[in-house]
Amino acid sequence: MNRRNVLTLIPLSLAGISTFAGSARAKDKTPLALQFTARMREQFDRIKSTQSEELLEASYRVADTVKSGHKCYISWDMGHRTTYDIWPDRPGDTDIFVKDLPTKAEKGDLIITNAAASEELLGRLRRFHEQGVFIIGGPRSWGGDCIGSEMIVPEIRKLKVRPFSDLWIELYETAYGAVVNVPGSPYPMGPSSGGSGVMTYWMITADAARLLSRSGNSFTVYGDEPTLNANAARVNMNRPLGGLYYETAIAQQKTIESEIDRIGRIAEMAV
After folding, report:
1. What's the CA gap between 264 and 120, in Å, rounded?
2. Would you tell me the crossing angle of helices 241-257 and 32-67 to the nearest 10 degrees?
3. 9 three-class SS
4. What are the C-alpha distances in Å from 153 to residues 1, 71, 185, 246?
5. Cα–chain-centroid distance for residue 212?
6. Mean pLDDT, each 10-residue run in order, the chain (271 residues)
7. What DSSP string describes 220-257?
8. What whole-number distance in Å separates Cα of residue 219 and Cα of residue 214?
9. By CB distance 3.0 to 4.6 Å, which of 6, 38, 241, 269 could disulfide with 206?
């Protein structure tokens, strides 16, 4: 079912909520592509400034779970799917996580998810939690935990992970799941879940890998990069890597903006 077909009109009381595609940008003359990257940075900055402790706590929980011999599962929205940036053998990724919701789990296992998109999956997660599985949750635009969820139809609105999450990571996702107001369109465009989901996944993974390495636990890192020599620069194992990854990702995003003219020419070719 198309999300746009299940949303009612936005109540006037929500018109000023800054986390929706804001009216302040409705008359913005900035190219839509740059509006999108700017709005995503605003969301990223908000996550970084308010959720860094939760993200680092998630990393510690993951590392402790692996060290205890239990399994870590993840099903985290990365833009309509949960595996867009963590496909099999993705260079730089690890085998720390099983990339799916389990059908069976044991006490001591850990699940990171905001993708329980049915009552059956939600019920399964609730049972796992009751059995002693540690649940780390977050909102997604297709569910009842997001900002503006009161606009979504009841069968979707009742899908809430937060009530039984042991740790919550706030992603500031909205019912629309988009951040750019497009002239002539009643709905915003530019999905946000891909950016926020991918960024938080890698922040958690970076520090989980650091903590496991620091304690001498081995794991697989995919890719065919050459082995580092003795003179290669290395990170401080006592410094959180999530923040370092965040800084690198934001710098890379800003370099994309320098290609705006080329992006514009490509867009014109499609019209």
Report:
1. 44
2. 160
3. coil
4. 11, 35, 21, 35
5. 22
6. 37 40 57 93 96 98 98 93 85 95 97 93 97 97 93 92 97 94 90 94 97 96 86 90 94 91 91 83
7. -B-S-PPPP-TTS----TTS-HHHHHHHHHHHHHHHHH
8. 12
9. 241
pLDDT of residue 145: 96
Q: What is the pLDDT of residue 28?
A: 67
Q: CA dihedral defined by 126, 144, 48, 63, rounded to 10 degrees?
A: 10
Residue 13's identity, in one-letter code, is: S
The whole-model pTM stands at 0.87
CB atoms within 10 A of CB 260: 14
CA distance 249 to 92: 14
**C-alpha neighbours within 13 Å on the C-beta side of residue 18:** 5
Rounded to whole angstroms, the Cα distance separating 61 from 72 reads 9
* β strands within the chain, DSSP E: 72-75, 97-98, 110-113, 134-137, 167-168, 178-180, 189-191
Q: What is the pLDDT of residue 4?
A: 35
Q: Is 115 exposed, middle or buried (0-12, 13-18, 19+ CB in 10 A)?
A: buried
Cβ neighbours of residue 129 closer than 8 Å, sequence gap 6 or more: 135, 164, 166
pLDDT at 19: 44
Any idea which residue has 């409705």 for tokens? 26
Hey, what are 190's tokens?
């530019």
| Residues in contact with 249: Cβ distance below 8 Å, sequence separation at least 6, in sequence order | 44, 199, 202
